[in-house]
Amino acid sequence: MPDLDSRENVEQFVELFYQQVLADPELGPIFLDVAAIDLDVHLPHIKDYWCKLLLGERGYQRHTMNIHRQLHGKRSLAGPDFARWLAHFEATLDTHFTGQYTEKARRIAGAIAANMEQGLEF
Ligand code: HEM
């Protein structure tokens, strides 16, 4: 299985991850109804975000925490939501990718999800 060591593979990962998240009965509506994302706008941001975190690319320069804080104001995001999000993230990695970048993605996602969950507790 490939590693998340190129933009091409990171983009493939994001597509596969979002297929799962958007199909999730709890999480899908948060993206599609609450935030009403335009996938053609949203997915390139997510791809740039992971290319920054994993490959050191500089394309993503937005404030992720503020975006989730705003979202949290419309539909509260709590422990079980983060657990589902992470479960899809890890299942996508486990099924399609392997290697040191894959493990880096797993660590970073876990740490950011925990931080974000704490940061939204108020
Ligand atoms: C409960 C878990 C989560 C849910 C339900 C969720 C949902 C969302 C939604 C609906 C948006 C679009 C917001 C908008 O455009 O108005 C978004 C954006 C984003 N999320 Fe999450 N998110 C979760 C966790 C995370 C985590 C843990 C990370 C990072 C590891 C993350 C990274 C991002 C990024 C990078 C964006 C793009 C922001 C931008 O437009 O630049 N999310 N999220």
Automatic annotation (TrEMBL):
It comes from the Bacteria. The keyword Metal-binding applies. The keyword Transcription regulation does not apply. InterPro entries: Globin-like_sf, Globin/Proto, Hemoglobin_trunc. Heme binds at H45, H68. CDD domains: TrHb3_P. GO terms for molecular function: heme binding; metal ion binding; oxygen binding. Keywords: Heme, Iron, Metal-binding, Transport. Signal peptide: none annotated. This is Group III truncated hemoglobin. It comes from Halioglobus maricola.
